[in-house]
Structures
1.
Amino acid sequence: GEDVEQSLFLSVREGDSSVINCTYTDSSSTYLYWYKQEPGAGLQLLTYIFSNMDMKQDQRLTVLLNKKDKHLSLRIADTQTGDSAIYFCAEGLKGGGNKLTFGTGTQLKVEL
Amino acid sequence: GAVVSQHPSRVICKSGTSVKIECRSLDFQATTMFWYRQFPKQSLMLMATSNEGSKATYEQGVEKDKFLINHASLTLSTLTVTSAHPEDSSFYICSARDQTNYGYTFGSGTRLTVV
């Protein structure tokens, strides 16, 4: 199956860390991505991780991948109001013709 | 970095008319582009894969005669919604694979409203 699931909503205070979780079912995925979508806009690639990696850090973003549990997470350190958006995880499947399967999306709300 | 330009950003059309949406890769060549549809507060649904110089590959349940895709050059793919109806109103987003960074670059989306 290609179901990719995320929790729908997350609320955090400014300055705290945010952790957005994603679970997927297809073990043949080669790359896993995190995208950010602001209202009425397209998707902005935040980061990606190869399926043979456990962790990747890029400035305030840390991606953790637990391949055994098919669990992906995105941690945003020092969350700011500008981080308020919808975050999508996506998996690129080996042999899938370069198609991406997107998660259901998590709306992150950052409160003062 | 890779940039994908999508136009128009917003369009309102009458029922029964056709609307063309353009997706251009500005600084790279894209042999493959993807067209998605997104309903409010929902995820992206892949409609079709656009292949330069050949026919598009449509996902199950997507009407190829209604959503015409043309990928005539390495930098341009177009999606034409033919005989539009109010139920076609949605947010349409294109993307292209940028081979240099393993990422998929997305256009800014087109909000289509059919009245």
Note: Chain B has a mean pLDDT of 92.
2.
Amino acid sequence: GENVEQHPSTLSVQEGDSAVIKCTYSDSASNYFPWYKQELGKRPQLIIDIRSNVGEKKDQRIAVTLNKTAKHFSLHITETQPEDSAVYFCASREYGNKLVFGAGTILRVKS
Amino acid sequence: EAGVAQSPRYKIIEKRQSVAFWCNPISGHATLYWYQQILGQGPKLLIQFQNNGVVDDSQLPKDRFSAERLKGVDSTLKIQPAKLEDSAVYLCASSPLADGRAFFGQGTRLTVV
């Protein structure tokens, strides 16, 4: 079955620095990789996603890269701000639309 | 566009009691997911519907959990009887069939005492 590993589990950065979160997946049939941000007590919110026919996607301060050969994808946040502090989840979608999540990364941005 | 609606927002029950959660997905979304999120963990898929058919329920504890999506629109998830370890947030999400982007409801926080 599908398994998504996410690292690190916690990440502390200084405001203005970059943050990188990495995920690996096991199912080579996976074709869609979203990232969600979850603030305390709130629903996960989709912040960026990438499909298997693309290697990189950028949206303002956030970007996602995908290496299908190595089966890993990463979230990059540049110029971090205190409001970026949250839990970030990666996910992988395999054939049939099954969406499997990583365990999450707690990001703390210190001002 | 209205989002995914869930109710109730909070529920406290005693162990061995039963409970039901309701979800109304975004209009037109064929895929509906129920996830269990235990504090400090990622969402764990319990069951996935496509229209009114079950696509995946491999991680649903079928001796106590059940779910249905009779008309291919809203869905209910039931737990009977509840155990202490069922305390979690139950998240419903929906996705268009072709696009695949999943959007979450606010969730139901269940506490079993």
Note: The first strand of chain B starts at residue 5 and ends at 7.
